[in-house]
Design goal:
By secondary structure, the chain is mostly beta strands. The protein has two helices and 21 strands. It has a five-stranded mixed beta sheet with strand order 1-5-4-3-2, with no helix packed on it. The radius of gyration is 18 Å and the shape is globular.
């Protein structure tokens, strides 16, 4: 099933979705982290942002930062947490920050986003890039943060369940890479039927109809990997089973998240609409799974 999303669905990049009560909330890259609301996952409206711009310390740490990138959202211990990235294009002088709120409802008297500070950062001397955060809990309830873009690829780090931040000097585990071009980012991990699935975006975003982004996946019995594709090739070797690489209209799909509700899996992502001059646009589709336990994209199956 492919949802016919409508309303305030473009321009939008790097989307992730949550739900509180009867309302769905969508977070994306943009000034202050824009928030969109919907009561049916189809019709969307802008309904606020996390920050008016960004915290002062972010601008001091990352000179030239404009919008905040690639949020991730989760509910934990009675609060909603949003990870976000601050960087400038093409640089790995980057950081991942954290904000929290007791509710996502902007009409609630308790609605207030609290700055939780820095989570992790990278310097130009590092071989990784601290953006594109995704937090996942393993089977034992231990939280892990996946992140990374270009350079040496996707990293995974154990985080403290109380702070949702890694300890200083915590080990960074490499779980996916794209040797050669190094073009890999947008990690998102889910656990299904005892296996961990790592979704990644290979190749290049942000080039309108010329974007070559594509969504791939690997899986592992352990959250720390190794992640392998359908053919047994590891994601560290550039492997990845293709989920969706777009169509004549929808170019460069990528930076997906996965939303699970009542046993149904929805892939939430952006793609560049060739019928609208390559505008990055919200797409949502229900993932199917084949007999081998690999995710199938209806858009790919229908050529849409």
């Amino acid at each position: 099933m492919i949802l016919n999303t409508q309303g305030d669905i473009a321009p939008v990049h790097d989307v992730v979705m949550s739900r509180e009560g009867t309302i769905y909330y969508l977070f994306s890259t943009g000034l202050g982290i824009p928030i969109r609301c919907s009561d049916d996952m189809v019709r969307w409206r802008l309904c606020g942002k996390v920050f008016a711009t960004y915290p002062d310390w972010v601008g001091q740490a990352i000179p030239g930062v404009e919008s905040l990138w690639a949020p991730d959202v989760l509910f934990h211990e009675g609060r909603y947490f949003v990870y976000y990235a601050a960087s400038t294009f093409g640089s790995n002088r980057s950081l991942i920050g954290l904000a929290s709120n007791v509710t996502l409802d902007p009409k609630s008297e308790d609605y207030e986003w609290v700055d939780e500070g820095e989570v992790i950062s990278s310097q130009r001397s590092d071989n990784y890039n601290a953006i594109d955060a995704n937090l996942t809990f393993d089977a034992n309830g231990q939280p892990w943060l996946a992140f990374g873009s270009f350079w040496s690829g996707i990293k995974l780090v154990r985080v403290d369940p109380a702070t949702l931040k890694p300890a200083p000097g915590a080990e960074l585990i490499s779980i996916a890479a794209n040797p050669g071009t190094t073009a890999i980012e947008g990690a998102y991990i889910i656990r299904r039927q005892g296996l961990y699935y790592l979704f990644i975006s290979h190749d290049y975003c942000c080039r309108g109809v010329e974007s070559s982004y594509k969504i791939k996946v690997g899986r592992s019995e352990a959250i720390t990997g190794p992640y392998v594709d359908r053919n047994g090739k590891t994601l560290m070797e550039g492997g990845g089973t293709l989920v969706y690489d777009g169509s004549e209209r929808w170019r460069g799909p990528g930076h997906n998240s996965v939303y699970v509700e009542n046993g149904n899996y929805f892939m939430v992502y952006h793609a560049y609409d060739a019928s609208a001059a390559g505008t990055p646009t919200l797409r949502i589709e229900q993932l199917n799974w084949d007999e081998g336990g690999w995710p199938l994209s209806p858009s790919a199956a229908l050529g849409r």
